[in-house]
Amino acid sequence: MKLKIKKELLLDGLSKVSKAISTKNLVPVLAGIKFELEDKGLTLTASDNDITIQVFLEKNDDMVIESTGSIIIQGKYILDIVRKLPDEYINIEVVDELKIIIYTENSEFNLNGISKNEYPNINLEKSKNPILISSKVFASIINQTSFASSNDESRPILTGINFKIMGNLLECNSTDSYRLARKVIPLNDVVEENYNIVIPSKNLLEFIKIMDDSEENISLHVFSNKILIQYQNLLFQSRLISGTYPNTANLLPDEFLLSIKTRINDLYNVIDRASILTSDKEKNIVTFEIDGNKLFVKSSSAEIGRVEEKMFIEKNNEENLKISFVAKYMMDALKSFEDDEVEISFVGEIKPIILKSSKDEGLVQLVLPIRTY
Amino acid sequence: MKLKIKKELLLDGLSKVSKAISTKNLVPVLAGIKFELEDKGLTLTASDNDITIQVFLEKNDDMVIESTGSIIIQGKYILDIVRKLPDEYINIEVVDELKIIIYTENSEFNLNGISKNEYPNINLEKSKNPILISSKVFASIINQTSFASSNDESRPILTGINFKIMGNLLECNSTDSYRLARKVIPLNDVVEENYNIVIPSKNLLEFIKIMDDSEENISLHVFSNKILIQYQNLLFQSRLISGTYPNTANLLPDEFLLSIKTRINDLYNVIDRASILTSDKEKNIVTFEIDGNKLFVKSSSAEIGRVEEKMFIEKNNEENLKISFVAKYMMDALKSFEDDEVEISFVGEIKPIILKSSKDEGLVQLVLPIRTY
Known about the structure:
Two copies of one chain form a homodimer.
Chain A lengths: L1 E5 H11 L14 E7 L2 E7 L3 E8 L4 E5 L1 E6 H10 L4 E7 L3 E5 L3 E6 L18 E4 H11 L14 E7 L2 E7 L3 E8 L8 E6 H10 L6 E6 L3 E6 L2 E6 L18 E6 H11 L10 E7 L2 E8 L3 E8 L1 E2 L5 E6 H9 L5 E6 L6 E4 L6 E5 L6
Antiparallel strand pairs in A: 1-5, 1-7, 2-3, 2-6, 3-4, 4-17, 7-8, 8-9, 10-15, 11-12, 11-14, 12-13, 13-26, 15-16, 16-17, 18-22, 18-24, 19-20, 19-23, 20-21, 24-25, 25-26
């Protein structure tokens, strides 16, 4: 294998696949990046068994392929070397089968490689009927739902996002059993087969970090135990979480006692201030007291003190209400709307609180209240 | 105590003193900030017994003092509250002796205060003959020497910077016994008394973080067991480290085998790349091989591989040399010069390496070599 390649091109590919390099040392070869150089271009692959990322750099003017071949190079070193070399072009050559030489005019690195035969055989096949979706819409879905997933590995199913695809509708649900984020979007095409899968939230967050700002289609290839996402010259494969996702269909009430409208940013800041007086953010409980056209936001801690914030709101009727909840959950839900204003609806003081925005009708956030007496 | 004060003014004062709030809960009152409101203005004090910071906000148009008084307020809450309140002015009132009310038009915080009588009595007296020094010069001294101090508390004396003041000269030394940073600057005035003290490096780093970009004089008030630094409306007091600082006077050689000149930035990057191939940065050993007008920078690790970098240098004679050292120490030393070029002088392969720059003659960096055979 002998290659001369533009630094920026190689660095971009290495940066993307390096997200999948295993940091655990259980399988040493997975700390490496597989380089496969063929006449048509260079394929880079990294995997930690949970996710696999593959980038294909097609042969172009930024690449001189002198001889083809494959080798596995320690991921953290090759990324650092390429990042820190000041030269425009970098040469990579394999000699004596496993000796890698990376060189430019004034720099030469000799690394010990690993034979490509040691790399696990990872199947990155595509499905016949992939689902197409805009990259921006996909990133929105993940950002608007993933925060509501659980971090608690004792119920693995709740650490993922549930994707349900029926006809031309995609419905994503994410819940840690204290709150629920739901986003429904129409697809451009009707799918041939319905899907109901759970994808690990942290893997989806890794994937959207790789995406750039351009809007283009990505394609989702769903299998029984894995999903392959194709984006530009990149393949991203994640395992699915097995098990049955809780049925969230009946959680959203359809009749409400009272709805209020308010500016998202102002309400966020009010709750943020009301939750200052706590030593453990996660558990800080804040109370809404709706009285006429005023919303009082209150919180107190016996040792530290108490806080009361007041803001003016719009209401749809004359009902008043007092309800308590975890500040962080409400703030996370508020942040998920790409809008200035939110509508918050209440059924009663021990019933779910529902957040919606007129600009983004596919998104619903649910926060369960806390009984404080 | 009743006060109306401009948010920005109070926030600036609180941010500065909060650097001294104790994060250990050994003395609960030290987690607080002491507010002392007098007719002439507001004094804020925080201390963790190691450092004490006091800011005086003089009465001006941004402050309405309705009644004077003193109270101790939990530092982390008051800082967060003031930072997050959106209002231009903030009211602070103490009622029933220990109840603190912080309020604006729509927000009200009630906090439990602590009596000022519980606060330790901290003496912030000034000396009769303070030493004046430019704030920018002082910041440079700390930045150019502190990194060479030790973090190892088993030899406390080496965790500080040694300040020696004799006549009109200030000499600062910092060493962890593997390297030495020395900066000598002339003072504007001759001091009446000579000083030889050791100030904890981490405290000096805290102090220079508080300084803004303006150039003005700060005054150093030295006592037998503490130093008080006066800067603008702020007093910063630190304990001194007791004990005798090692004598560094004879460490700097005055005759050299060979000196080379090179661009700091280029050499820094070359050593940075040469030290990639290691799993433990602290211990990565790099070798200089000076051969003619070329400097080869080499490093190797049996498991990972080896690297060789080449750069062109200026020399003052025909001598060649091979010498090894810890990459990080050389990189720290190079970074300390506010110049483009550095002169590196060698006595022999097991003798100290000396770095100097023509632009900053008061600064000398010494790095001890490592014997590699």
